[in-house]
Structure formats: C-alpha cells, structure tokens
Amino acid sequence: MENKKVIIIGSGPAGHTAAIYASRANLSPLVIEGHEPGGQLTTTTDVENFPGFIDGIQGPELMESMKKQAQRFGTEYINDFVSKVDLSSRPFSLSTQSGQEFSADTLIIATGASAKYLGLPNEKELIGKGVSACATCDGFFYRDKIIHVVGGGDTAMEEATFLTKFASKVFVLVRRNVLRASKAMIDRANANQKIEFIWNSTVEEILFDDSGVTGVKIKNSETAVICERKTDGLFLAIGHTPNTSFLENQINCDDHGFIETLGIHPDTDIPGVFACGDVQDSYYRQAISAAGSGCMAAMRSEKFIEENPL
Ligand code: NDP
C-alpha cells in the first residue's frame, strides 16, 4: 500500500488550497478529487467575489487554475472517490471506489457540502438559468426581478434578506405555517418590506422557457389548491448536506453532520486528521473562506508531521 505524508480528500477551493500549501512545504500531497472535481463552484458561472479578479472569473476556470497551481509544486491528483477510511491508528488507511488503497500520515478532509435540491424535473438543468442554491453567488443577477426562495430556516431568512438588495420582491415559500429560523433572523425578514411569506406551500413544478425560469407551480398543503406564480428566480435554501458518509461516524460531527473542528483551527477530534471548507462550515460557505481554511489545514498538517514523525 502506497504511503503519503498528506492525503487531501476533495478538490474544491479548500482542497486545492491545502494542496498548494502542502506541496510548497515539500509534503508531496495526493488529492483524491471525488465525484465532482472542483466542487460546488463548477456548478456556478460567474464568480465575482473571489478577490483578485477585477472582472470576475468563471467557477470552473478558477478551480482549474488552482489545480494547475498545486500541480506546479508537485501535487498528484487522482480522479477517484474515497469509499472507506480507517482512522483508528496512524498511518490512516483509505480505499477508493476503483479499488486503490493508500495510507497517510495526515489526512485533510475537504469534501464540501452539497446543497439540497427539491428533486423536481429540470431543476438541475435550470441551475444558472433561474435556479440557484446560493444567493451570495447569484443574487447580483436579479436586479429589479421577482424571486421566490424556498425554505424556512436561517439560510432562507438570510438569503431572502440578502436578495432584497437586488430584487424588487422576494417571496418565501414555506412548506409549513411556521418558520424553523431563529427569532432574530425572522424579525429581520419580517421588517423587510420587500419580503412576503407564502405559507403551507410546496413547489410542484418549475415553469420555464428558452430564456430560463418563468414561474413556479405551487400547492397549498392545507387546501390542496394549486396555483402558478411568475418568478424570474427560484432560490433553494432547504439546507446543505455535508459529504461525510464515507467517514462512517469515525469523526465528531455536529447535529447537522458537519465535522466539528477546534475553534478557529482545522483540527478534528482525531490527531492528524484535519477538516476544511464547507464540510466543517455551515455558516460562511464561501470559496474564499474555504480556501483560507484549506491553507490552515495544510499548515497544521505540516506542523503535526514535524512534531509526530512516524
Ligand atoms: P435548516 O435545516 O435549518 O432548515 C431547512 C429549511 O428548509 C426548513 O425550514 C425546512 O422545512 C425546509 N425544507 C427542507 N426540505 C424542504 C423541501 N423539500 N421543501 C420545502 N422546504 C424544505 O437549514 P439551514 O440551511 O437554514 O440552516 C442550517 C444550519 O445553519 C442551522 O443550524 C442554522 O441555524 C445555521 N445557519 C445560521 C445562520 C446564521 O446564524 N446567520 C445562517 C444560515 C444558517 P421544515 O422546517 O418544515 O423542516
């Protein structure tokens, strides 16, 4: 079994940045890319808030540049998916979907989180054409437009409030008649004139034409009445699922399944295993914060190897 000093699982901004730092520290890291190389950014188009790009950059292009930068310093990438890990002793062992086996002195988990979708026909094809799961990424494109947000948690409140900076009106479709969000967030949304709640409603169908989303068909769960509503955008804020199933509960996670790290540090409860990016962050979920935490994970990994040689 091939042993590596550092194995990085995941290839979004956190994984690539960890790879850049680890390879520049001569640790010859291996990145196992996962099912969606490049991560969530490959599903967005214009990234306008990543510092350094005056006119913005396309998500896939940004991820490809980060990868090339990491490769320049000797990072090895394999396009495979980690299916099993054994974290009971160092070196940690891993096996992949294609049957490869590795061991690693330290492990950096950067597997990200996946936005939950409703599971409706055409939903995924309409991403970037009116369907979005990230207001910070896409809100800017909805100046003076009508938007519907789905969800009743803190994310929905936050995204709806944020979207009022651009949209003329934001309707929040809530599947029950109560919100799950915290009082402070609800109060803020309630105080916003542009936000209107539509209770007991579930989206039955997304309506669209060649230009993208044109409306939604919603059903009232109490009356069973179905109606059509015009909208330019449908923002889903129904939660994220951190990609941790391959860990099989070997690492401490919070109630929502996000890996718990030590304060501002990327350390998990297993010495030598670090986590960065959205897999341990349900709050900021930005490419730049993920990249920053990837840098921290690589630096902690380097220090850990130095202090705990095998
Ligand atoms: P949550 O799981 O808290 O809320 C998800 C919401 O989406 C719920 O209202 C849920 O409805 C609804 N929902 C789920 N599935 C569907 C569906 N298929 N159709 C319609 N509605 C659906 O997720 P969040 O992302 O809002 O929050 C995750 C965590 O992050 C929380 O702990 C939250 O507090 C935290 N957070 C904190 C923020 C802050 O403090 N600034 C900002 C954002 C998140 P139902 O209630 O009926 O289950």
Which features does this protein show?
310 residues, alpha/beta, FAD/NAD(P)-binding domain, 2 domains
Description:
The chain is an alpha/beta fold. It has two domains: 2-114 and 240-307, FAD/NAD(P)-binding domain; 124-236, FAD/NAD(P)-binding domain. Helices cover 22% and strands 29% of the residues. The protein contains six helices and 19 strands. Strands 1, 2, 5, 6, 7, 8 and 19 form a seven-stranded mixed sheet that branches. The model has no long low-confidence stretch (mean pLDDT 95).
Mean pLDDT: 95
The CATH homology group name of the largest domain: FAD/NAD(P)-binding domain
How many separate domains make up the residues? 2
Bound small molecules, by name, code or SMILES, are: NADPH dihydro-nicotinamide-adenine-dinucleotide phosphate
Our count of helices gives 6
State the distance separating the first and last CA atoms: 16 Å
Task: Write the H/E string, N to C.
Answer: EHEEEHEEEEEEHEHEHEEEEEEEH
Shape: elongated
Q: Into which percent range does the helicity of residues fall?
A: 10-25%
- Here the CATH topology of the largest domain equals FAD/NAD(P)-binding domain
Outline:
The chain is of the alpha/beta class and 310 residues long.
What's the arrangement of secondary structure elements?
Elements: E1 2-9, H1 13-24, E2 30-32, E3 46-47, E4 57-58, H2 59-72, E5 76-78, E6 82-86, E7 92-96, E8 101-109, E9 113-115, E10 131-132, H3 135-138, E11 146-150, H4 154-163, E12 169-173, H5 183-190, E13 195-198, E14 201-209, E15 212-220, E16 226-230, E17 233-236, E18 240-242, E19 273-275, H6 287-307
Parallel strand pairs: 1-2, 1-8, 2-5, 8-19, 10-17, 11-12, 11-17, 12-13
Antiparallel strand pairs: 3-4, 6-7, 7-8, 9-18, 14-15, 15-16
Bound molecules: NADPH dihydro-nicotinamide-adenine-dinucleotide phosphate.
